[in-house]
Amino acid sequence: MKKVCWLVTLIWILCTSAISLSQDLQIFKERRELLRQKMGKGIGLVLAGEEYSGERFMVNPDFYYLTGIDDEPGAILILASAEKRRKEMLLLKPRNPEAERREGERLSLGEELRKQTGFKYIHRTDELGRWLNRFLNNCDTLCVLSRPASYTEPIPEDLKIFGELQSRHLNARIKDCTNLITRTRSLKSEAELSLMQEAVRITESGLKEVFSQIKPGMSEKQVQVIFENHCRAKGAKYLAFPSIIGSGHSSTVLHYTKNKAEIKNGDLMVLDLGAEYDHYAADITRTIPVSGKFTPRQREIYEIVWSAQQEAMKKIRPGVIIDNLYDAAYEIISKAGYGDYFIHGLSHFIGLEVHDVGLYDEPLQPGMVISVEPGIYIPEEDLGVRIEDDVLITKTGYKLLTDGIPTQVEQLEKFIRDLKE
Hints:
Elements: H1 2-39, E1 43-47, H2 61-67, E2 76-80, E3 88-92, H3 97-103, H4 111-117, E4 122-124, H5 128-135, E5 141-144, H6 157-168, E6 173-176, H7 180-185, H8 190-213, H9 220-233, E7 238-239, E8 244-247, E9 268-273, E10 275-277, E11 280-281, E12 284-289, H10 296-314, H11 322-335, E13 369-372, E14 375-378, E15 383-386, E16 389-393, E17 398-400, H12 409-420
Parallel strand pairs: 1-5, 3-4, 5-6
Antiparallel strand pairs: 1-2, 2-3, 7-10, 8-9, 9-12, 10-11, 13-16, 14-15, 16-17
């Protein structure tokens, strides 16, 4: 009887796992189909990016968004919407026996690899030229999908490849499709929001752990270790960005990551932290008094920042632009006399990257996730305050995703006090 139950359980696990995998692959397939429709008749490339010795491979988020593949450096996605059969193709680097001895065996091209990736057509990257030349027989439009680079940045690889092709196919024309993936990625699906909410939950849990342990005499580095170890224990394989833990004068440094000063009684501490869960980021900032209670001066500045954030949030709804939110927050801070001490923007998009893709001059839409993070930094007083929350734009306004840790003064002080008891 036990054997029968065990077999039934095993079959159930295998079946549900297969269904789950199929559903996941379908999401990526639908994203590629949507992108092809938006491209029109054209050929597009999305590159996974290269791996550099001694560094973690950071897959191009656009490539991951469209394929779900994060462990194939050098891979290339081809989208060829004019083709009748091969509308999409995955190219993987050739196998390297020496590298596989060090890093593990890779699958050969075949049915198993097709099942794992959801691609019917898979070839090697050394065949890229052959396939592009073939596709250009049916379509003369090359769609640039990579993000625009400034004059001082390297030319995107897909644009380099298309430039080479254009010199050989004189009828080929290059079409600017740089914002197509950006617009799609900026609107989060329910599946994406679920992953982002888990990243938030882990980050908030890590912050609570820090609040419960923090005390004068610790180093900022100790606080960093507490947070990061906690996040990993809760399922975050990576952080969304380097931890910012600044106390005293360091609280006035916007992107302070040295995290090496001693924490002193009476200091304010800015904790700008975020876990990454299954590629999706959280980004939360809380400013707390090391003693557990704000001094009158600290409270004065903190409440100006808090009021600015609340005023900006009142403006959040579809149709407004991010500048409208900044103006609302800046007005509060400026009227209080601290406009020159608000030294950064108010919001950025969040998703596969902590500073995710998005079009800042276009109206907000339901499904977008942004940060709201006003701050005041007074170096001459060693006093910096920033409050940051993540919000989802909804049809009627917004939903606060980071509601697990209060920001109002009395509530925050009580929250810290309760955690220490």
